[in-house]
Design goal:
alpha+beta, 5 strands, globular
């Protein structure tokens, strides 16, 4: 009797199922690796942008170890992720100023992450946007690479929480808005005010040199 050497339909289906299963597992692994790599790259890019922005606000001539001079924060008030720290600019063993992270949830296209530099006397040393998703050509003018609008905060001082001048011009304040985009600059002005509020309510702690914490670079 001749033996049928061709695989049965059941065997073919079984082999196909195994092949599909292996393909699915491999595909999932590739996707997972890609996602992890992408997240790591994004985080590295954010840290690099933050480091650059820190030294734009307080140059290395003031404190070349600025990135290492961390201070713990009440992250809930600043709307930032747990574990996020502030920075102290130390000069002649005194805190010359601090840099506080703050996130605005009032952006047109999502969260806007900022760092706000404040001199010990309460005037602003500078503000930088670390990440955002605002509309190219409109809201993205908060990015210093797109416009110098963010420089308008340097040297500014807010006269208390009720300072009506601390707003965009459309709302009766001192800061320009963008043509066709008011929501984005309004969000940055508001978030900067939150950072100032935090500084004023935690002034003694922030202006006392903290123990040096481990930096990302170490």
């Amino acid at each position: 009797m001749e033996i049928n050497k061709h695989p049965s339909t059941t065997q073919s289906i079984s082999k196909s199922a195994v092949g599909i299963g292996l393909f699915a597992v491999l595909s999932a692994a590739v996707i997972a690796i890609t996602q992890v790599t992408t997240v790591d790259r994004i985080e590295a890019n954010i840290r690099e942008a933050e480091s650059k922005a820190l030294y734009e606000i307080f140059p290395a001539s003031i404190d070349e170890q600025l990135y290492d001079h961390r201070v713990a924060l009440d992250v809930g008030q600043l709307n930032v992720d747990p574990g996020t720290t502030g920075y102290q600019a130390i000069q002649d063993n005194q805190v010359a100023g601090v840099i506080l992270p703050v996130t605005s949830s009032m952006g047109y296209s999502g969260d806007i992450d900022l760092i706000v530099g404040i001199h010990a006397d309460g005037t602003l040393a500078g503000v930088r946007v670390i990440s955002h998703k605002e509309t190219p050509g409109l809201g993205d003018k908060i990015d210093r690479s797109k416009s110098d609008w963010i420089d308008s905060f340097k040297g500014a001082r807010r006269n208390g929480r009720d300072d009506s001048n601390w707003a965009v011009k459309k709302d009766g304040g001192q800061f320009d808005q963008f043509t066709g985009a008011t929501i984005t600059p309004r969000a940055v002005v508001q978030a900067t005010g939150v950072a100032i509020d935090y500084f004023e309510s935690h002034r003694n702690l922030l202006l006392s040199p903290a123990n040096r914490e481990k930096s990302y670079a170490e």
